[in-house]
Task: structure prediction
Amino acid sequence: MGEDDSNIDKLNLEKYNTIMPESDDRALCMEVDKPISRDGYLGNFVPRVEAMLKARGEIRLLVHFKEYHGWEAEAATMSMGGLMEYGSKFRKFALVNPPKKEILRSKVNDPLMSGETRYFETDELQDAIAWVKE
Result:
């Protein structure tokens, strides 16, 4: 994604959710097709968010729920802690094809985030990518 990917667990990327090719130092675009795990959160997601913050000072995140398999309990707890730490740095958060459970989760977490959240259908993926990057 950027010049400082040194903390990303590259040996285990196949077991993590997919980083979409549209990702760059301005926006992180992820495709959720596996359970959201503690290892994936710490080894794949957090280092990329930290690199984005270092490069841009803000977070632009797109999550495409291609196949939703839920969260491991520890990953969900860590995500809440991360939201409390990084929530004020969010600029844009796009959820594509989110399950109702994730829509509710994002609405509950909304007061912790400083940026804008939008919801898109699967056929609007390209619009979501354009929006999160604008």
